[in-house]
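Schema walk-through. Below, the input block comes first and the output block second. Nothing else is stored per chain. Lengths vary across the set, and this one has 232 residues.
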Amino acid sequence: MLMTAPLFSAESANARIRLMLALVITYMVYPLLDWPKLDPLSPTGFLALLNQVVIGIVMGVSLQMIVSAVVVAGQAVSVTMGLSMANLMDPTLGNVPVLSQFFLIMGSLLFFDLGGHILVIQSVIDSFTLLPIGSSLISVETVGKLITWSSMMFLGGVLIALPVMVSLLLVNIGVGIMTRTAPSLNIFSVGFPAMLAAGYIVLLVCVGSISERIRWLWQQGFSHMRDILGIG
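--- output ---
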């Protein structure tokens, strides 16, 4: 889970930090539950270990869909504004637009504001109770739920970027009408600065609604993560 979940899997939290977090969480969780005695080198123990790895991956990947939605939203807004060439090299996500980085910072702050780190650790504890070691999560139903949930990557991106994209579309139509009525007007010298200025103004106006949409996506992500794991 610490290798795949948002923020925990960031490059800023290197392998040593994740290892220390795993040891601390294990130290706190171990006295709370009754653990079966399994030989990790036996086939039964290996399958139980593999199932626990799958549970952690499913938890992390289901939440990474929200991060991907935020990145998609930033890419859509950047292309609409004409900032698609203004990119930053993110060690976790690769080459992403500047606006995607802005949305990611906003999403990270909202993640902590919602207590997402606590909810993820609580879900790990609940999974040991409702999915005891030895029970299997690998099933067609689980894969189907995860694939269905992956559509939120695009739906969430559209929901975040829609206000800005619609506003800039209207600005683009206005610039087109203006250049059509005055053919001598250079569309590049007028349209590009107009789209940039309008884009920043619309972002400033819509930042409140964008943050609420990202907050809603995180809430949906936590709910679906627990639903996929069957811990309700």
